[in-house]
Amino acid sequence: MQEQSTGKQQGLGLLSSSLRRNDAGGDDDIARLGVPGWILVYKLKMGSILRDWQGFHQFPAATQSKLVELFAKLKEQGVNKMTILVMGKGGVGKSSTVNSLLGERAVNVSSFQSESFRPVMVSRDRAGFTLNIIDTPGLVEGGYVNYQALELIKRFLLNKTINVLLYVDRLDAYRVDDLDKQIISAITDSFGKEIWNKSLLVLTHAQLCPPDDLSYDVFCARRSEAVLKTIRMGAQIRKRDFEVVHNDVKCTSISMDSAIPVGLVENSGRCNKNENDEKILPNGDAWIPSMVKEIVGIATNGKKSLLVDEKLVNGSESNDRGKIFIPLILGVQWLLVKWIQREIKKDIVKGGKYI
Ligand SMILES: Nc1nc2c(ncn2[C@@H]2O[C@H](COP(=O)(O)OP(=O)(O)OP(=O)(O)O)[C@@H](O)[C@H]2O)c(=O)[nH]1
Ligand SMILES: [Mg+2]
After folding, report:
1. What pLDDT does 353 receive?
2. Gene3D superfamilies, per this entry (predicted)?
């Protein structure tokens, strides 16, 4: 029967396979959407499909009402669309965080080596508000920064505006090393220093029992400080520029005087819950609404969102800076050549005299 399918059915088949590739939600949703095929084609061409945010209704009522309030705040400021970019090393919980924030299994999560090498944008609509989240492949391959992945991400982002970057790492890691700094440098070289004005440090695996008799809050603060310092150094941001507190945003989970707020995340299904059925951290904080609050704070912090244009994709900021010196270098080279030619001529004249 399948072999006899009409062109229209084949078209939908193609669409559903694209959907499966882009979004782990499954193709049942296409039927549920009830939208004309051409709209689906258009939206797929734009890099994702805009769906009704089904996962929103899966959140506990207490979380839903907090999120409604936060989105209303955005709408008050004329913001009805937000695009979040998620980046970090492999296996730190990027995809799981995307799913947790959406309340649905939108992107693939893998316990072992990931098979997703491409960025994926998931778009959800709720009451006229569009939320785009872009999940990306890990930025480390075989112990080195994966510049190829970064290049792919950049190209995927062409003509998109990023309102918030979630830089993801794990809370339950005890060290930062040179590779962490290199990742930050690579992100900064690709997107410019300004991207850190729109970023939130997300630390996953936050349901932990700290070692060495440290309290949970002290442990979180120390780990955050270590990663934030690495970001500051990797992005070459001056200390005093980094220590500015957002006017209206205060990190709810960790009290830090940093320009980059920190959000703690526990993606595991075994995460503890409060009496309202909300997922909570060991400090009692319901982390999903807290994190969305931070995200909204960053989106409206008055700093410019990042438009990824041709210029950014085809030449990094740092390369542009280097280009200023090209005429100078050419000039010096020209003078050097002229000087050598003059010296050679002098030598020839001198040589002629002695013959
Ligand atoms: N306990 C716990 N496990 C987590 C958490 N976040 C992610 N995991 C697990 O860690 C593994 C990797 O998670 P992913 O979300 O696929 O990580 P990723 O960063 O997207 O990985 P790549 O796509 O390979 O870069 C999976 O087995 C997740 O279930 C968390 O907060 N707590
Ligand atoms: Mg992933």
Report:
1. 63
2. P-loop containing nucleotide triphosphate hydrolases
Beta carbons of 183 and 140 less than 8 angstroms apart = yes
Measured CA distances, 200 to 203, 263, 291 (Å): 10, 7, 9
* pLDDT confidence of residue 13: 41
Index of the ligand 1 atom closest to the CA of residue 89: 25
Q: Using alpha carbons only, how large is the chain's radius of gyration in Å? A: 25
The answer to whether residues 198 and 233 touch, using CB atoms and an 8 Å cutoff, is: no
* pLDDT averages per 10-residue partition of the chain, 355 residues: 38 41 42 47 56 94 96 92 96 96 93 78 93 96 90 96 98 93 96 94 96 91 94 89 51 53 96 96 96 95 94 69 71 89 87 64
Contact between 132 and 48 under an 8 Å Cβ cutoff? The reply is yes
Q: Which ligand is nearest to the CA of 204?
A: 1
Nearest bound ligand to CA 115? 1
- Atom index in ligand 1 nearest the CA of residue 116 equals 23
- Taking the domains of the chain in order of start, what are their residue ranges? 48-314, 319-354
Q: Which atom of ligand 1 is nearest to the CA of 266?
A: 31
Retrieve residue 303's tokens: 């700093």
Residues in a beta bridge with 132: 83, 123
The pLDDT of residue 191: 95
Residue nearest to atom 26 of ligand 1 (CA): 111
CA–centroid distance, residue 332 to ligand 2 (Å): 49
pLDDT value for 321: 56
The one-letter code for the residue type at 172 is: D
Pairing state of beta strands 50-52 and 120-126? Answer: parallel
Model pLDDT, residue 110: 82
d(CA 229, CA 223): 10
Long-range contacts of 192-196 (CB under 8 A, 24+ apart): 192/306, 192/312, 192/317, 193/235, 193/236, 193/237, 193/317, 194/303, 194/304, 194/306, 195/162, 195/165, 195/306, 196/165, 196/231, 196/235, 196/237, 196/259, 196/260
